[in-house]
TrEMBL record:
InterPro entries: Kinase-like_dom_sf. This is Serine/threonine protein phosphatase. It comes from the Bacteria.
């Protein structure tokens, strides 16, 4: 690999052995995402065809129309060929905007072979967690900043999670583009959803508590479009109604999903819904 992560760029030279290994792995059809070691390094095979459970999709669509909330609408469902095509198209779009993404080395009907972009941000965070909390949280802030930069370019990740981010030089690269929420809702809503999804992870992982959440939010906000922050406020106003019942349930059993929901939605509602914070946000973007 040449260290750059542009899509459909130079394909590394494959030996006969590599082709044999890759073909064997492609036809084995075991795991959905699989790392395969070849002579020049690793590649990743990603297979499509295991669609989202339709029950959840239907429930999500129902909820979205019931509450008139676009951010609950699921991405349009596609068959495995459609999923593959969507991921390739999105990788190309992100690459065209100068965002680091894995390179597509090979595409068949329902599988992709991607260049190795390891280490993921999750792997970096795990390594830094106990050894360097400041660097750990700085990486989280960087994720929020780069998500904001991506939003400023009119893009949306769809399912931002540190395991689908990678370290690319000083910045963050992105992978896993199966979702396309902006096809089902206005872009500002889709980007607002992105920020909330990132904060589910970020507030829970931060070693330095609210200071990190504040820096991360500030970094995202400095780059992201103002209409996305307005869409986020609407979304958080709705989600905040679930804070009290969720806290009650949490007293009986605090699972990790509940904990993340409370931390992220709690923090964002303080920032976006508290009157004092609203005044501060009107004052300028430099807080
Ligand atoms: N090109 C790649 N380079 C490095 N790691 C990868 C690559 N593709 C996938 N992975 C790893 O596999 C995981 C799952 O792949 P992903 O594309 O996110 O599929 P899924 O839809 O199952 O989440 C990623 O979170 C990442 O850890
Ligand atoms: Mg993923």
């Amino acid at each position: 690999m040449d260290g750059r992560h542009t899509a459909l760029g130079n394909i590394p030279h494959m030996t006969d052995g590599d082709i044999e290994t890759l073909l064997a792995a492609l036809t084995r059809e075991t795991r959905r995402v699989e790392r395969v070691d070849l002579s020049f390094g690793a590649v990743w095979i990603k297979r499509y065809g295991t669609e989202r459970p339709p029950v959840w999709t239907k429930a999500q669509t129902g909820l979205a129309s019931l509450f008139g909330l676009p951010f609950l609408r699921p991405s349009p469902a596609l068959d495995s060929k459609g999923m593959t095509a969507r991921e390739i198209r999105r990788i190309e779009t992100f690459a065209a905007h100068g965002i680091p993404v894995p390179q597509v080395l090979y595409a068949s009907g329902n599988a992709l072979v991607l260049s190795d972009v390891a280490p993921t941000v999750t792997a970096r965070l795990d390594a830094l967690r106990d050894t360097d909390p400041a660097a750990h949280d700085a990486l989280l802030v960087r994720c929020a900043a780069d998500l904001g930069a991506l939003h400023a370019k009119g893009l949306c990740h769809g399912r931002p999670h540190p395991r689908d981010f990678f370290v690319a030089g000083d910045g963050i690269g992105f992978m896993d583009f199966e979702e396309e929420p902006e096809a089902a809702m206005p872009l500002a809503d889709a980007q607002a959803r992105d920020l909330w999804l990132l904060f589910l992870q970020l507030t829970d992982r931060a070693r330095l508590g609210e200071a990190t959440a504040r820096q991360a939010y500030g970094a995202w906000r400095a780059a992201a479009p103002p209409e996305t922050e307005a869409a986020l406020a609407t979304m958080i106003r709705f989600l905040a109604k679930f804070l009290s019942p969720t806290r009650l349930i949490g007293r009986v059993h605090m699972g990790s999903d509940l904990r993340r929901f409370l931390a992220a939605t709690g923090y964002l509602s303080e920032v976006l819904l508290a009157p004092r914070a609203a005044d501060a946000s009107k004052a300028g973007k430099d807080d």
